[in-house]
Design brief:
The chain contains 8 helices and 16 strands. By secondary structure, it is an alpha+beta fold. It folds into 2 domains: about 160 residues, Aminotransferase class 4, branched-chain amino acid transferase, N-terminal domain (D-amino Acid Aminotransferase, Chain A, domain 1), CATH 3.30.470.10; about 140 residues, D-amino Acid Aminotransferase, Chain A, domain 2 (Alpha-Beta Barrel), CATH 3.20.10.10. β3 and β4 form a beta hairpin. It is globular, with a radius of gyration of 20 Å. InterPro entries: Aminotrans_IV, Aminotransferase-like, B_amino_transI, BCAT-like_C, BCAT-like_N, Class-IV_PLP-Dep_Aminotrnsfr.
Amino acid sequence: MRESAYIWMDGKLVPWGEARVHVLTHALHYGTAVLEGTRVFDTPGGPAVFRLEEHLRRLARSARMVGLPLPYTPEELRAATLATVAANGHASCYVRHLAHRGYGEMGIAARRCPTVVSIASWEWPPLLGTSGVRLMVSSWQRNDHRVVPAAAKATGPYLNSVMAKDEAVDAGYDEAVLLNAAGYVSECTGANLFVVRDGRLLTPPPSAGALEGITQDTLERLAADLGVPSARQDLLRTDLYAADEIFLCGTGAGVAHVSAVDGRELGGPGPVTAKLADAYEAATHGRDDRYRHWLTPVPAADPATDPATGPATGPATDAAATAAAAS
């Protein structure tokens, strides 16, 4: 991972190496944070953020579910996102939004810990590559929604994904798929999963513990426009073994075909996967006018303005100061 020039933190852009938190930050000890992963794609009109509004809405929903007050409006976070990408000069990149309980007091209760918000961008290729994902069913179960808010994209529950991913990599696989407590397929460690059977798309529902993915939703919409039927329904482990095609999708992964599950070979990308991957590529890169509304152009940075001190740093710090004082 190549470092960028700036990270936005609570109203201003700071040099990458100076974006620091205290060792007693509440989120570091207790996982009290929510996050978003968003991508910027190079389009004929310049860099553009894909489905930024939807990502920011999900960030706000996740924060609300875990009781984390957000000190910035969606409009302020939108402006800060664009300012960060512009200041770093990215034509294409990954963007990480993070809102976490900061340093204030120790202990489980976090009433005096202010919310700290940061936005980082860096160049990051698709995480699962393009040669086919070798998938294994993990021995770890997906977090149960009765134990943690699985619908929230929160940092604490990601330990579940870390354990499953490490298990898969140690066993010689690329990725793991997790089952829920009832034995149904949930999702992979950082991506949603689609099964193709008899030309029909099937993907696990949120009730299975799967995060409602924005890329998942994108592919369902693309499939509808291509005349490919899709449904969210419970899937068993054996449905993976019997699939004609399987692919994973997510902001970090893009669209990645699965070449094998637990040693059962599927081969290269099938026709439905290839068709959807091409449609996704066209939509994200601004080559299909039907989906231009999903792209938010990144304005060019003003070369005469110092990003660290000038007006292009995004929203002011008043909201953060107010939240800190209130807490």
